[in-house]
Amino acid sequence: MTSDTLLSPLDGRKTLSVAEVAEALGIDKQTVRRDARTGAIPGGFQRKHWGQWRFRRSILEEWWAKQGLSGRGKKL
Asked: Which helix (H) or strand (E) holds 31?
């Protein structure tokens, strides 16, 4: 993992799971879901049929950079 991205740039996926976002930010999955509902973590959406949260990687990467975060949930 590089310091300015959530995942490796070689990973071509466009969305991330709750677990992946939680691990990247160093917080628990319930906090990710709550913060997605309130808009504190951007890029989240729920799949219609299953209700699972997914996160748009491009939006999270931009937010990640604006927050000045690097590594796993640590501020610079």
From this structure: helix 29-38
Q: Domain for residue 10, yes or no? A: no
11-40 pLDDT tens trace: 677 899 999 999 988 999 999 999 999 999
Residue type, 67: Q
Q: Rg of the chain over CA atoms, in angstroms? A: 12
Full-model pTM: 0.73
Q: Does a structural domain hold residue 36?
A: yes
pLDDT tens digit string along 47-76? 877 788 999 998 998 898 888 765 555 432
Q: Note the Cα 17 to chain centre separation in Å.
A: 8
Report residue 50: phi and psi, to 5°.
-110, -20
Tell whether 28 is covered by a domain: yes
Answer whether residue 45 is part of any domain: yes
Considering its fold, how many domains does the chain have in total? 1
